[in-house]
Specification:
Layout (H helix, E strand, L loop, with lengths): L1 H16 L16 E6 L18 E6 L5 E4 L2 E4 L1 H9 L4 E7 L3 H11 L6 H20 L6 H22 L8 E8 L10 E7 L5 H7 L14
Parallel strand pairs: 1-2, 1-5, 5-6
Antiparallel strand pairs: 3-4, 6-7
Helix pairs in contact: 3-4, 4-5
Amino acid sequence: MHQVLAALLRGNSTHARGLQSRFDDVQDAQWPEAVTVCCSDSRVLQDHMWGNDVPGRLFTCSNIGNRVVQRTDRGEVVSGDVLYPIVHADTGLVIVTGHTGCGAVTAAYDGLTGDESEPAGISHCLGLLRSHLTAGVELLPDGADRTESINYLVEYNVDRQIDRLRASDEVPPETTVVGAVYDFQDVYSGRRGEIHVVNVDGETTVEGLKADHPEIASRIERLWEY
């Protein structure tokens, strides 16, 4: 472990040398342009997937299954991690980004279709996913194999997180909410590492999305229009 830590710290030294003056404008406050909600996965490089190396530009959140909800004594609410920049920094764009082959969606799918055996903390997170995926499992097309089913449910999960944001009284109605999928398994038609937009403000049809957002039409694609 010490060798790994030493290598990481050497990498941080390189990082710090390149950012000496770039924190000047954000040392005392932050006004991020977007909140990104991604899955906690070592293969999902949150800033790098957007080509971003600007401090203060993106407010990045990650958790198992790119969820926007947490469970409280009031029931399910939009997570404070996501709400913080919206409420306190006037951030007007939220991007929920799933990814192909998501392990959290896979585990939730297995829990709905078979058995689940996970530690309590992981089981809690998966429970927050399962409640939103149950109807999606029932909608899966006949003949879809396991891999296809999971990637369909990745999109379905993103859609449900967008629904939750749009339904919340705590998220200002003028906030733009976008759903996307990061592909590193050659599932979509683009290159590995490309992000595909699957939902904007609740619109999920490819035809509708391209009509509404022609400037990003080449990056709009869905595997499953249910």
